[in-house]
Amino acid sequence: LAKTTQPISMDSYEGQEVNITCSHNNIATNDYITWYQQFPSQGPRFIIQGYKTKVTNEVASLFIPADRKSSTLSLPRVSLSDTAVYYCLVGGMDSSYKLIFGSGTRLLVRP
Amino acid sequence: NAGVTQTPKFQVLKTGQSMTLQCAQDMNHEYMSWYRQDPGMGLRLIHYSVGAGITDQGEVPNGYNVSRSTTEDFPLRLLSAAPSQTSVYFCASSYSSGTFYNSPLHFGNGTRLTVT
Fold first, then answer.
1. Would you call A99 and B48 a contact, using CB atoms and an 8 Å cutoff?
2. Alpha-carbon torsion (A88, A24, A102, B33), positive or negative
3. Which end of chain A has fewer surrounding CB within 10 Å, N or C?
4. Chain B interface includes A9 (CB < 8 A)
5. Could you read off the pLDDT of B21-62 as tens digits, one per residue?
6. What is the structure's pLDDT at A32?
């Protein structure tokens, strides 16, 4: 099982770009990397998923280097509503179905 | 489009009582799981299921039982509630075709449980 490590917390200001990095040194060949966002009193919700290089959707980008031992979630021009906890999750075909979340990164966006 | 539905939203139990947390999904997802989240903490996996009739233990299975008699439902049973089980419980589901990890988890809104 690929264990993930993220910063516990990050601060930013409205309008800035925020980059949250996740380390997953023992990622397996067929593992995918998925990021989730969680607001207080809600279940996590999917943000973005990737395997390698760069993935972009309407809310975020995900950068994965060639060795895939880390990944970076990039949130462009954050707003106050982006204040949340962000989790990266690693799992794939060679992994078990036991999906273990890390501790997550608590992002605070200030006005 | 209901997604993942959890009931009840809130529950208070006395120590020693038993109860069942309900989870239902209408997306025909094969994979379902239960997590608990203590205040200010991350998600910990309790039990999971890759299909009807198949269940397995997660990180923190003690004190909980599950069953999966249908694709839609995955109830979590607390056998004898303890104050240490005070937490928010989340149910999640995902499509599974052998490549389920390409399909993200869909979470319910949680059940907030207090054991006194």
1. yes
2. positive
3. C
4. no
5. 999 999 999 899 999 999 888 999 999 998 899 999 999 999
6. 87
Radius of gyration of chain B (CA): 13
Is residue A26 pLDDT above 90, yes or no? no
- Shortest distance between the Cα of A15 and any Cα of chain B, in A, equals 27
Burial class (CB in 10 A: 0-12, 13-18, 19+), B97: exposed
Q: A100–B59: do the CB atoms touch at under 8 Å?
A: yes
pLDDT at A1: 55
d(CA B116, CA A9): 32
Query: Shortest Cα distance from B15 to chain A (angstroms)?
Result: 24
- Nearest CA-CA partner of B51 in B78, B32, B77, B24: B32
Q: How close A78 comes to chain B (CA, Å)?
A: 23
Terminal Cα distance for chain A, rounded: 39
On whether any CB of chain B is under 8 Å from the CB of A92, the answer is: yes
Angstrom distance (rounded) from CA A30 to CA B101? 10
| Residue B73 burial (10 A CB sphere; 0-12, 13-18, 19+) | middle
Paired with B80 in beta bridges are: none
Determine the Cα–Cα distance for residues B41 and B43; give it in Å rounded to an integer. Answer: 7
